[in-house]
Amino acid sequence: xxxxxxxxxxxxxxxxxxxxxxxxxxxxxxxxxxxxxxxxxxxxxxxxxxxxxxxxxxxxxxxxxxxxxxxxxxxxxxxxxxxxxxxxxxxxxxxxxxxxxxxxxxxxxxxxxxxxxxxxxxxxxxxxxxxxxxxxxxxxxxxxxxxxxxxxxxxxxxxxxxxxxxxxxxxxxxxxxxxxxxxxxxxxxxxxxxxxxxxxxxxxxxxxxxxxxxxxxxxxxxxxxxxxxxxxxxxxxxxxxxxxxxxxxxxxxxxxxxxxxxxxxxxxxxxxxxxxxxxxxxxxxxxxxxxxxxxxxxxxxxxxxxxxxxxxxxxxxxxxxxxxxxxxxxxxxxxxxxxxxxxxxxxxxxxxxxxxxxxxxxxxxxxxxxxxxxxxxxxxxxxxxxxxxxxxxxxxxxxxxxxxxxxxxxxxxxxxxxxxxxxxxxxxxxxxxxxxxxxxxxxxxxxxxxxxxxxxxxxxxxxxxxxxxxxxxxxxxxxxxxxxxxxxxxxxxxxxxxxxxxxxxxxxxxxxxxxxxxx
Length: 519
Known about the structure:
The chain has 519 residues and is mostly helical. The protein has helices at 9-43, 47-75, 77-96, 101-129, 132-162, 167-171, 173-187, 232-251, 257-280, 294-323, 329-335, 337-357, 360-376, 386-414, 421-446, 457-485. It comes from Streptomyces rishiriensis. It is found in: Cell membrane. Residues 14-490 form the Major facilitator superfamily (MFS) profile domain.
């Protein structure tokens, strides 16, 4: 039975461990974009290699994160979390010493595997360890401190790129892991998803209702039981489909037509096969019947739109500020900081507002504000001023993200049965990451960006402007979908535990709870 109190020494050690672990992945997701121009120059890499530097990580993370929680349920949450931290650190070391772009891309893919283990595992440890009266506050602190890590990321990444070098963006994870692992092994209790003994059955999941436990950690297990079979085939087909489509989009500019076409067709076939396997599997990774909720389906469509635009924006804007505006990596990273700061300060209040007025207005107005922010980025060119050109854009974008992220998460949770909240959150998080993956692959193609465009200020500027218009259009589509489909949830629905959130590339994960309304 989870009975660790937050105020106890052990509770503080558990919180420190989970914050360190999740911060590794959050830092990495925000700092790499700032380092891309320097990576390209040092490794003599073209734009496609830089796209793969971002997408190799997103590919394995998005493809495997739905499996992360169920692995912890089966083998032990602490054990899988520690494996994820060590895996991530070793892959980071490989990134830091990579002699060429090919090795860097392969190491980034390995990083994503580690991220898929430690990201859901960190929240799962909190849910499994803390007393139910402290769990909500522990989740809030974990989310808030993790958000601070995301906020520090671009600033720290820019400082490292301009100072010791871009390799330290990755090598920084090694000492963090060296602290995290021994603390986890010494202070964090092991737990898994095995059924509790009868005396503790009602309280083991923080519920006195006796409704049972649906395992899954933070990402949610779609297996229904920790002893069910892992959906390895489903995970493989899903990742393969994403990989083939991504390859086709990135290589379409210069790759052999036959190979690119074959990859695109094979990607579609793998996607169809993935759906077929999930429909027939007794223990699917992505249960198709969860999409029987029209609102859940609609909110995930909104998620695809907004996070595709965010992924494209943060990939291109850091390069635009360095290549076109002529700023240093530190200046470029710091310039985007207001978006994360606004989310940290205001996301909880945004969630409260959405509870009073319903999610439809925030999910409509939020994407439109973000679209306006991206259109304001059209002012950013050669000799751009931060105060006059960049700051207005990132402030408008930040307020738009504040308006939509918390209501989006709440609506996802409210759209399904309480027992499937973790599954729903995992699907939504994976959808956001997959959307960013496709955007990074597709935007250079759609805007006519050449393989060497990032080496030319004029060429990159032209493509960047077209990309911002496309991203704004995708956000507008998301706003229309939200306005047409989102409705006020039931008053007794599941409410988010993560009230404070700072990540700009994916919505927060939520764990499984069998208790109904969270106040």
